[in-house]
Amino acid sequence: MAISEPLDEAGISEVIAMALSDHVSFDHIRSLFGLSPDQVKQLMRANLRPGSYRAWRKRVRDFSDRRAHYKSAKTLA
């Protein structure tokens, strides 16, 4: 699952900044850089300290769980 086109340092930094933001989805990163969610996770794991990567993954998982809850609540209302 290698990244199709190697990113330069600026591209890697931009993907990391976008991934760390709570306002940017994996779909948006895919549309700009062509990276799948698994490729973004791989890039983050390679470029963040292990503790920072684990904290990011936990936040992403928690955020997606909450988003699913809010989406289901909106459809019921």
List keywords for this structure.
77 residues, mainly alpha, 4 helices, 75% helix, globular, disordered C terminus
What is the percentage of strand-forming residues? under 5%
Work out the helicity level.
over 70%
Low-confidence stretches: 73-77
**Cα gyration radius (Å):** 14 Å
* Distance N to C terminus: 41 Å
Biggest sheet layout: none
How many helical stretches? 4
- Give the beta-strand count: 0
Mean pLDDT: 84
Order of helices and strands: HHHH
Structural class: mainly alpha
The coarse silhouette is globular
Give a quick rundown of the structure.
The chain has helices at residues 9-20, 26-33, 37-47, 50-76. The chain is mainly alpha-helical. The longest helix has 27 residues, at 50-76.
Would you give an account of this structure?
The chain is mainly α and 77 residues long. Helices cover 75% and strands 0% of the residues. The protein has four helices and no strands. Helix 1 (9-20) crosses helix 3 (37-47). The longest helix is centred in the last third of the chain and has 27 residues, at 50-76. It is globular. It starts with 8 loop residues before the first helix and ends with a helix.
